[in-house]
């Protein structure tokens, strides 16, 4: 058997794939951490800002309904537009949702922030896995 060094192009392509995989894993972990981070804060919002159980329940229902509709729509959209643009748009919405969730003092802001993070959870699992 001959010892032949890999072509430089193949070595660079391997590094590119490793970097792409690492960035996909990190963005998936960051997305799930950001999406799940607001749930423990519901009791804090209830105590400090006077959110009611009905308001928190409305947030959960809106998030669930948006997740179901997003799962139905974004799969086809990512097939049509492409995986990379859809994933980047989802990550952009995640950043926007996190910015909105930085200052929550009204139930509408909480719902809006949670709805902006919905495409991330749905799309990242469909696109990246």
Structural class: mainly alpha
Gross morphology: elongated
Global mean pLDDT: 83
List segments where confidence is low: pLDDT < 50 over at least 5 consecutive residues.
none
Q: What proportion of the residues form beta strands (DSSP E)?
A: under 5%
> What is the overall number of helices?
5
Distance between the termini: 37 Å
The value of Rg in angstroms is: 19 Å
**What's the order of the H and E elements?**
HHHHH
Number of strands: 0
The main pleated sheet reads as: none
Q: What is the helix fraction of residues, given as a range?
A: over 70%
Key traits:
5 helices; 82% helix; 129 residues; elongated; mainly alpha
What's the SSE blueprint?
Layout: H1 8-36, H2 42-49, H3 53-81, H4 83-100, H5 107-128
Characterization of the model:
This protein is mostly helical and 129 residues long. It is 82% helix and 0% strand. It has helices spanning 8-36, 42-49, 53-81, 83-100, 107-128. Helix 1 packs antiparallel against helix 5 (107-128) and helix 3 runs antiparallel to helix 4. The longest helix has 29 residues, at 8-36. The chain is elongated and about 70 Å long. The model has no long low-confidence stretch (mean pLDDT 83).
Write a brief structural summary.
The protein has 129 residues and is mainly alpha-helical. It is built from five helices and no strands.
